[in-house]
Amino acid sequence: MRTRFATALLAAAGLLSLAACGSGSDAAGSGSAPSSAAGGKVAVVASTDVYGSIASAVGGDRVEVTSLIDSPNADPHEYESTPADAATVSRAALVVVNGGGYDDFASRLVESSGTKATMVDAVRLSGLPGAPEAGHAEGDGHEHGQFNEHVWYNLPTVRTVADEIAKDLGAADPANAATYTANARRFGTDLDGLQQKVDAIRAAHAGQRIAVTEPVPLYLTEAAGLQDATPEEFSEAVEEGTDPPAAVLAAMLDVVQGADPVKAVVANGQTEGPSTQKVEDAARAKGLPVVEVSETLPDGVDSYVAWQGAQLDALAGALNGAA
């Protein structure tokens, strides 16, 4: 069985189950939660530093953002919350989560803390086909394959999340509402720059085949016009943390080293396992580029735009070299 991350995480007791879904931005709980952190800043909690970076871009110096997962060595699928996390959420005015079963620990914290914090759920805001709808519970069993929950790789969704954060921060801090709106607009302009990179890849490489070790980047690669040639059983098994059957691994290896190989392999750099390593080794032996992507921000990077821009540049470079 694949070891996804090496960091050991502490468990917290007494967390209640998330009862049901709501809209993309909901009041969560019946207790009281102060809207200000130290220095009068609005307290924002994000499930991961991906959403923390977006909240920081929108909130600027008027917010204090805490990302519950802020390390490339932590896995949102497997993360178990600590009592300190619960205390942090209880003091928040706004909680930003991915949703869709990806980071259920954060949604459960909101539910169990009794906070009145508004919760921004990216999956529910996305409007993507297959996304969980209001009134349907998420996360029970966390089955993959039905919906790609990695929606921070979908630029329109990220824009919608940023605009929602600006709206909710403005409600919590009306005196600075115009600032949050302006910051979100500026962030949107930066997203336009990322979209230009996507469009450039599409213009040069539309229709080219790639393989992925997991479906993490597929929203972005599909927007760039690239075709995913990965056997579905392979990426699903890896994402679930199981070893693909021998026949499935053989089919994946044929995709990268057969008579008609893909142009590049896009690998989740935060996973490791014998199957993914065999695929990456086979690709390199064939002379194919391997592009690493991640689920959280790399060490030393605190900007969503800089992170995604670097990944897009790496993908473009790989495809240009393979062309």
From TrEMBL:
Matches recorded under Gene3D superfamilies: Nitrogenase molybdenum iron protein domain
Q: Where does it localize?
A: Cell envelope
Q: Which residues cross the membrane?
A: none
List the keywords (alphabetical).
Metal-binding, Signal, Transport
Q: Which PANTHER family does the UniProt record give?
A: HIGH-AFFINITY ZINC UPTAKE SYSTEM PROTEIN ZNUA-RELATED, METAL-BINDING PROTEIN HI_0362-RELATED
Q: Where is the signal peptide?
A: 1-22
Q: Per its record, how is this protein called by name? A: Metal ABC transporter solute-binding protein, Zn/Mn family
Among SUPFAM superfamilies, the record links this protein to:
Helical backbone' metal receptor
> What PROSITE patterns does the record tag this protein with?
PROKAR_LIPOPROTEIN
Provide the species name: Pseudonocardia lutea
Tell me the InterPro entries matching this sequence.
Bact_metal-bind_prot9 (IPR050492), ZnuA-like (IPR006127)
